[in-house]
Design a protein that fits this description.
Elements (H helix, E strand, L loop, with lengths): L3 H15 L10 E9 L4 E8 L4 E8 L5 E3 L2 H4 L6 E2 L5 H5 L4 E3 L14 E7 L6 E14 L5 E11 L14 E4 L7 H9 L4 E5 L6 E7 L7 H6 L2 E6 L18 E3 L3 E4 L2 E2 L4 H4 L10 E3 L6 E3 L1 H17 L4 E2 L8 E3 L5 E2 L2 E2 L4 E4 L6 E4 L1 H4 E5 L2 E4 L1 E3 L11 E3 L1 H4 L3 E5 L4 E4 L17
Parallel strand pairs: 3-10, 4-9, 17-28, 18-27
Antiparallel strand pairs: 1-2, 1-12, 2-3, 2-8, 4-10, 5-8, 6-7, 7-8, 8-9, 11-12, 11-29, 13-14, 13-30, 14-17, 15-16, 15-23, 18-28, 19-20, 20-26, 21-22, 23-24, 25-26, 29-30
The structure holds 2-acetamido-2-deoxy-beta-D-glucopyranose (NAG) (5 copies).
The site of one 2-acetamido-2-deoxy-beta-D-glucopyranose has 4 residues, from loops.
C-alpha cells in the first residue's frame, strides 16, 4: 500500500496539472496589447471573457479596483456567468461592501439574487455605479504564445450609464490597482507567478504592451530593464478612490516626489503638498493611466510654468497665446527637434535622492495643439471628482514610451528613461 505521503503527493500533482488547460507548461508571464484612442487620449487593452470568449476592449486603470464593463455582446453570451454570493470568501476577497437582491428568472449579469456588491467608478466623469459582482472565465495568452483559462475571474457587469465618456472602442475599465481582484493579483494567485507587471504605453498611432509576471524581454528592453532606476511605491493610508471606506489603504500607486527640477533649476515648492498627509490622505504623487496629462496642484503648477517659460525664452523659444487646458504654449517653429522630441527645457521629478529622477524630454512634455503651436503638456488640477486631493497625478502622456515595472509585492517601481534615447519605443516592447 502506498504511504500517505506518497498518495498526497500524487493527488496534489494531479491537481496542479488539471488546473492548467490542456496540461500546458506552467506559464511565467502573460501579455496584453495596449492601444491609445486618439479622440479621448485613453489607453485600452483587449480581453476575452466567458465560455464564448467574448472580445471586450477595456480601458486600463492603473489605480482601479476591479474590472467593470457593460456590453450586450457579453450579456447575450454569458452562459457561464456566476454571481458572487453574499457572505462568501470571494465576496471578502473582492472587498464587497453590500448585498443586493434582484429577482429576474433566469438570472442575468447585473440582476442576480443575494449578490455581493460594490461601487465602481468611472474616473472620467466621476459617476459611480453600485451593482453585483460576478465571475467568469478569462482567456489569457502567455508571453510564449500559449493560451490559458483564468477561471472565476471577478468583475462587475455595470449599469450602461457608466460607459459615458469612455473611448468609443471600449466598454469598461480593467483594474491594475492594489487589490486582490485586480488582473495582476488574480493571475499571480491562480498561476503562482510574481505579482509584478511591466507597462509600456504607446504614443498616438502606436501599439504598446503589458507583461504580467516575470519574463526576459527582447532586445534592447532586457538591457534597459537591467539598468532601470527604482523608487519605492508608497501607500496612501487614506483611500483616494472616493467610494472606498476611509481608513482603507489607497489602491492607487504613489511615489515619493521630493522636488521638481526644470532645466537646471530646482523649484522652491511647498513640501507639505509633496508628502502624503497620513491623516487626511491629501498631497503626494500618484500615477494614473486614466489622466491624459500630469496634473499639478495650483502652486506647483505656477512654479513649473514660470520656470519653464523662463528657461524656454533662454533657448529663444517664442511664447504664444495659451490654449486651454494648457498654461504655456509656444511657436513650434522656434523649437528645434531632436530624437527625444522638441529641444525644450527638461522637467525632472526628483525622487528619494537627487540622483534618482524621472526626466521628461520634449516627447513627453510638449503636445501639438494646432498648426505651429505646441504646449507644455501639464495641467493645473487635479480634477476634484472624489476623495482627497493628490498634489501631483502623473498622467498618460508623461508615461508614454517609458518602460515601467510595477513590482507590487516588493512595493517598488522601476522606470526607464524615454525609450527614444535608446532608439526604440513601446511599439517594439515584448518578450524575447
Ligand atoms: C458564440 O460565438 C459564436 C461565434 O461567434 C456565435 O455564432 C454564437 O451565437 C455564440 N454563442 C452565444 C451563446 O452567444
Ligand atoms: C433571494 O435570496 C434571499 C437570501 O438568500 C432568499 O431569502 C430569497 O428567497 C431569494 N429570493 C429568490 C426569488 O430567489
Ligand atoms: C503649504 O501647503 C499646505 C497644504 O495645502 C498649506 O496648508 C500651507 O499653508 C502651505 N504653506 C505655504 C508656505 O504656502
Ligand atoms: C472637492 O469636492 C468635495 C465634495 O464635493 C468638496 O467638499 C471639496 O470642497 C472640493 N474641494 C475643492 C478643492 O474644490
Ligand atoms: C479601517 C477600515 O475602515 N477598514 C475597512 C476596509 O474595508 C473593509 C471592507 O469594506 C471593511 O470591513 C474594513 O472595516
Amino acid at each position: 500500500m502506498a504511504s500517505p505521503t506518497l498518495s498526497i503527493f500524487i493527488i496534489s500533482s494531479l491537481l496542479i496539472v488539471s488546473s492548467f488547460s490542456n496540461a500546458q507548461p506552467k506559464p511565467k508571464a502573460f501579455t496584453f496589447p495596449i492601444r491609445k484612442d486618439d479622440a479621448t487620449n485613453q489607453y485600452y487593452t483587449t480581453i476575452q471573457l466567458g465560455s464564448n470568449a467574448t472580445t471586450l476592449n477595456v480601458g486600463i486603470d492603473l489605480g482601479g479596483n476591479f474590472l467593470w464593463f457593460n456590453s450586450l455582446d457579453y450579456f447575450s453570451a454569458a452562459d457561464t456567468y456566476r454571481p458572487i454570493l453574499c457572505g462568501t470568501k470571494q465576496c471578502r476577497i473582492a472587498n464587497g461592501v453590500g448585498c443586493i437582491f434582484c429577482f429576474l428568472s433566469p438570472p442575468v449579469p447585473g440582476c442576480t439574487n443575494n449578490t455581493c456588491s460594490d461601487y465602481s467608478l468611472n474616473p472620467f466623469t466621476g459617476t459611480q455605479g453600485y451593482s453585483g459582482l460576478g465571475q467568469d472565465v478569462l482567456r489569457v495568452s502567455s508571453t510564449r504564445g500559449a493560451h490559458y483559462k483564468l477561471n472565476d475571474f471577478p468583475f462587475q457587469f455595470s449599469d450602461p450609464v457608466l460607459r459615458e465618456a469612455l473611448a468609443a472602442p471600449t466598454v469598461g475599465l480593467l483594474a491594475l490597482g492594489r487589490t486582490r481582484v485586480s488582473l495582476p493579483a488574480q493571475l499571480s494567485s491562480a498561476f503562482k507567478i510574481s505579482e509584478k507587471f511591466a507597462l509600456c504605453i504607446p504614443s498616438s498611432g502606436g501599439n504598446g504592451n503589458m507583461i504580467i509576471g516575470d519574463e526576459v524581454y527582447r532586445k534592447p528592453f532586457q538591457q534597459i530593464s537591467e539598468a532601470i532606476q527604482t523608487t519605492p511605491l508608497l501607500r496612501n493610508p487614506v483611500s483616494t478612490y472616493g467610494n472606498e471606506v476611509t481608513g482603507n489603504l489607497s489602491i492607487a500607486y504613489f511615489i515619493d516626489v521630493r522636488s521638481i527640477r526644470v532645466g537646471e533649476t530646482s523649484l522652491a515648492l511647498n513640501k507639505t503638498l509633496l508628502s502624503i498627509n497620513k491623516r487626511t490622505g491629501e498631497g503626494g504623487t500618484s500615477i494614473r493611466t486614466v489622466r491624459a496629462y500630469t496634473s499639478l496642484h495650483r502652486s506647483i503648477y505656477r512654479a513649473v510654468v514660470d520656470e519653464f517659460v523662463k528657461a524656454a525664452a533662454a533657448k529663444n523659444i517664442k511664447r504664444v497665446a495659451s490654449v486651454a487646458p494648457f498654461g504655456a504654449c509656444f511657436d513650434s517653429r522656434t523649437i528645434t527637434s531632436s530624437k527625444t522630441g522638441g529641444d525644450v527645457p527638461t522637467v525632472d521629478l526628483v525622487l528619494q535622492s537627487s540622483s534618482v529622477y524621472w526626466r521628461f524630454y520634449g516627447s513627453n512634455s510638449m503636445v501639438r495643439v494646432g498648426e505651429g503651436v505646441m504646449c507644455l503638456a501639464f495641467v493645473e488640477g487635479p480634477p476634484n471628482l472624489t476623495g482627497p486631493t493628490t498634489s501631483i497625478v502623473v498622467g498618460g502622456y508623461q508615461l508614454e514610451n517609458h518602460l515601467l515595472e510595477f513590482d507590487v509585492s516588493a512595493s517598488k517601481l522601476g522606470f526607464s528613461s524615454t525609450l527614444l534615447l535608446s532608439d526604440t519605443s513601446c511599439n517594439q516592447f515584448g518578450a524575447a
